[in-house]
Structures are given as structure tokens and as C-alpha cells.
Amino acid sequence: MSILYPGSFNPITKAHIDIAKRVADHFDDEVIFIPATNAYRKDSLLTPFCVRYDLIKETIEGIKRLKVSDIEYRLLDILGHQPKTVETLDYNKANYLLVGADNFKYMDKWYKADELFAKIKVVVYPRRGYDIRDSKYYDQAIILKEDLFDISSTDIRANLEDTKTSLHPKTYDLIMTKYKRYFQ
Length: 184
Hints:
Helix content: 25-40%
Order of helices and strands: EHEHEHHEHHEEHH
CATH class: Alpha Beta
């Protein structure tokens, strides 16, 4: 089995990679990045799925126990909409679901949240500024005690040159040489 790590990864950051490696080590299991499709509704425009998928794939290449899956892209054709996390679990069995505190705080509003928590153990990575103790699912989640990162994909997209240190060197090189037009 494995640990699913869904998100937009727009772009993938050093924090995403470090969190995935720590969780893989902690649970002695593989972590699978699940980038959202472009049907995912988010305030900021998403870089095309194929670009985000390639950035993840090329960045994590050779990193032990880290993988990427295009399951939600494939499910888009089957379901006709951006798969909800609970739907993705029907097609990709896993032991755990990894989410940041920023997402966990609002999981009670997720599609079929009760069913999701019945299907899988949710692992929460803390994030500065997000107090999750009042979450409906707090007692059902595994809350990690880890160092906090102050890296934001939104900030990176807004100021790519000044946030170079927040990106893995492979990610930065790919953006600057192959995908820069998506991050300007």
C-alpha cells in the first residue's frame, strides 16, 4: 500500500518534497503525488496538468519511495469531472492520505468527508498559521510533529526569481528552460 499526497503542486516546492520524504521515512512506505487536473476549481489559474505532472516526475526521479500518479487525469475521462478525493480512493488503494493543515482545517466541507475518513487514515502535516484543533476530524487524524515550512507555491509563482531557493534545483532548471511561460 502507500500514502497518497494530493494537491495542485503549482509548482512542486522543496517543502512538498521534504514533507513527502519525511512521511515516507516515518511510515516506511512510498508517497505518491497526485496532482489535480485542470478541472480542479481554485482561485489561481493552474499551470497545465501535463506541465505540473512532468515537473513532479522529473524532480523526484531517483528519490527513494517518491512517485507520481496521473490517476486523477485518467479518472477525469471516466467520471466527467475533477475526481473528488474519496472517488480517487476507489481507484487507488492506499493506507494513508497526506494533507497539509491548510487543507485539513476545511476537510469537513470536502465531498463525502465522513466516508473519506471511514476509508483511509488521514495524516496531517502542520502549517504555520493553521490551528486545526477545532477540526471535526482532529481526533481521527494522525497529526505529525514536524518542523514547519514557510514556502508557498503562490508566492513562488508571483516572484520566481526571488524564490529560487524554495524550489528543488531540478524544478527550477526545468521551469527556467522548458516551462517558464507558465510561471510568468
